Model the fold of this input.
Amino acid sequence: CDSFFVARLEEGVALRALVPQARIFVLDGAEADSVPALISHRLTPVLNSLAEAAAWSAAAGAGAGGLDAVLHVDTGMSRLGLPSYELSVLAAEAKKRLAGLNLVLMMSQLARADEPDAAMNREQLSRFRQALAMLPPAPASLAASAGILLGRDHHFDLVRPGVGLY
Done:
């Protein structure tokens, strides 16, 4: 495994000591006060809002250079990720709002992946594809543990087995 997702900054810092060459993504994003630690520990934030994208882009512009970023789009989980109105703003102003950022992944989270026949899975897949079409090209990830079992349509470029590894 060369890519890891952690929930919190502190988890990313601890993991970095164990896997110095791995890509470590922090789901909590890039709140302004966490930016220095993210940079110093070479952690990649999962940007969940326009405000986080602005903070991370500002860090890139302040001398940190091109910073890797993951963009999380809310396709129906309604917990984390850019809601549709922020996605529209970002799509219209992507060059400006993503200045200095290397978009290394676009992701979303399925709300009902553990229910294979749920119509919501198909709806989120469609919304995710629409979001990908709106933004600059980047690898994509939709399926976490239960989503992997929904089939190849949900796999895209990276799956996130997480709890499924247990």
